[in-house]
Amino acid sequence: MAGSSQKIRVVGAGVVGLAVAHELARVAQSVEIVERASAPGLGCSYLAGGMLAPWCEEEGAEPLVLEWGREGIEYWTKTVPAAETKGTLVVAPPRDRPDLIRFSRLTAGFEWLDAAALAEREPDLAGRFDRAMFFPHEAHLDPRRATSMLAARLREFSTVHFRFDTAAETVTEPADWVVDCRGLAARDALPDLRGVKGEMLVLSTREISLKRPVRLLHPRHPVYVVPRGDGRFMVGATVIETEDRYVTARSVLELLSAAYALHPAFGEAEIVETGADLRPAFPDNLPRIRRAGRVVYVNGLYRHGFLLAPALARRAAAVVLRDAHFPEVMDADPGERQRA
Amino acid sequence: MENRPLAVYGTTLASRLLVGTAQYSSPAVLAAAIKASGAEVVTVSLRREAGGNRAGESFWSLIRGLGVKVLPNTAGCCSVKEAVTTAQMAREVFATSWIKLEVIADDDLLQPDVFGLVEAAAILSRDGFQVFPYTSEDLVVAERLVGAGCEVLMPWAAPIGSARGLNNVFGLQALRKHFPAVPLIIDAGIGTPAHAAAAMELGYDGVLLNTAIAKAGDPVAMARAFALAIEAGRLAHCAEPIPPRDMAEPSTPQIGRAFVDLPRHA
């Protein structure tokens, strides 16, 4: 089947849908991307942190996230070069030192920095922390720029067509395959999908400059600050088991306190944006590829949309083109899968 | 002494371990840990997670699917009014009159505001709630809580999340002696199974914990470790441990032992 061109419809133009379309377009398939919004990357991809930090994620995620996340870094630095590999820093205030020790026990691929080594890498953090963990192989990207780059790449293929402002239900033309990448909107077909709220904000200040994402550990509200360039910093993100979509005062308070703890100059920054959306997740917070006839669902990337989309997209394309099977993400019966 | 099962507000519980549901890496890990812990009661924070509406439904349906009894809590409430409102919302969302009452003095220290606690406990008890108050080991506060209608007391071992174990053993012993018939459940500050076993050896009726399991490297194994420790501590308490003494006490009689004075390197 791989040689002959099929008509494949990808539903959803978030990072997952775009990455799936890209994998299919690269092997000369005719791809139609249907998106209910007016442009690509406006769903929860729009609010993502854009940290490609699979080693840090080992603190709470399954080994699959590290393994497939490395593919994600490869993709975003070479295939669609939207990311910079500047590493990640992890710090904690002195009284939360036990959290730093715990984090170091659960992760690998880092080196310890003393105050001087930290100051060398991030001069604006000089004197603020006497110890930091540095994960040199991690990368970060601006999600909005990354989805634009990927969409632009797709537009170069004559075989790829976008249909914006179009709800999937209204499309009635036949297709050989449908790859459903709608995120939480696909819960009508994926009953064990849930939404996990994430809130973020963007600060703007010229007083601080950071080259790489910094995670600040805290027993209750760990946060990260990701430099977006141009004096902007994304501060995120809460992880709350609720499905409302508004930004609460309390979350803003927590995010701002953490940013302020990282550097007091954030107290003078302008708040240029706040946002909240729901991450699609399955009960074990691991992604799934599910096949039902000629429909393939790719969903549940949880906090790891940009990190895992390339690996999932590659495998989803293999499911469509070669009837491949990936037991680590393809469960027959929802809820059957246990923790690995 | 006889090892009778724990009964709280007329409900008999076979397991003396109660667990929290926050901070797990995924609902699947949470479910596996609860299963391994053998706990029959899980406490859930309404304020933070469920938001007071049906928004957190898919998460809570996962919890309900575990077949455990839900003890909603008022974590994060800093005033009597907030705690009472949260308790009323919890009764509606989870259809239970049980409430783990937390009135926190300060969001940073997380110490119980015992004044607000007693006031809120009285309001909620009058309103038909069965209150599980998170308190300190202070005897007078405990008296007031019992007077307000609480049939269970939940003193801390140490500040929330501190993992320091039994900070004031003397105070906890005094509380146990003072209330021989009120179920006492340690709530907060437990770090390791040894801490939990020590609380049970003191004669406490149960232990409630969250972070020590949720944030362990392997939460499922740690849940099992706590279940075993709590059972061991309970059995030890019922088996009446020997008292400590200042001097060595040989376990075999010395009188009649031959050649006791022979030089060691003869």
Structure description:
The complex is a heterodimer of chains A (340) and B (266). Helix content of chain A is 28%, strand content 25%. With 340 residues, chain A is of the alpha/beta class. Chain A is built from eight helices and 17 strands. In chain B, 39% of the residues lie in helices and 15% in strands. With 266 residues, chain B is of the alpha/beta class. Chain B has ten helices and ten strands. Chain B starts with 5 loop residues before the first strand and ends in a 28-residue tail after the last helix. Chain B has helices spanning 27-37, 46-50, 57-64, 80-94, 114-126, 139-147, 169-178, 193-201, 211-214, 219-238; strands at 6-8, 11-13, 17-20, 41-45, 69-73, 98-101, 130-135, 154-155, 185-187, 206-209. The interface between A and B is medium-sized, with 23 and 24 residues.
Any chance you could write out the topology, listing elements then pairs?
The complex is a heterodimer of chains A (340) and B (266).
Chain A: E1 7-11, H1 15-26, E2 30-34, E3 51-52, H2 54-57, H3 63-79, E4 83-84, E5 88-91, H4 97-106, E6 111-114, H5 115-121, E7 131-135, E8 139-141, H6 143-155, E9 160-163, E10 177-180, E11 194-204, E12 214-216, E13 223-229, E14 232-236, H7 249-262, E15 270-281, E16 288-292, E17 295-299, H8 305-322
Parallel strand pairs in A: 1-2, 1-10, 2-9, 5-12, 10-17
Antiparallel strand pairs in A: 3-8, 4-8, 5-7, 6-7, 11-14, 11-15, 12-13, 13-14, 16-17
Chain B: E1 6-8, E2 11-13, E3 17-20, H1 27-37, E4 41-45, H2 46-50, H3 57-64, E5 69-73, H4 80-94, E6 98-101, H5 114-126, E7 130-135, H6 139-147, E8 154-155, H7 169-178, E9 185-187, H8 193-201, E10 206-209, H9 211-214, H10 219-238
Parallel strand pairs in B: 3-4, 3-10, 4-5, 6-7, 7-8, 9-10
Antiparallel strand pairs in B: 1-2
Short description:
Chain A is of the alpha/beta class and 340 residues long.
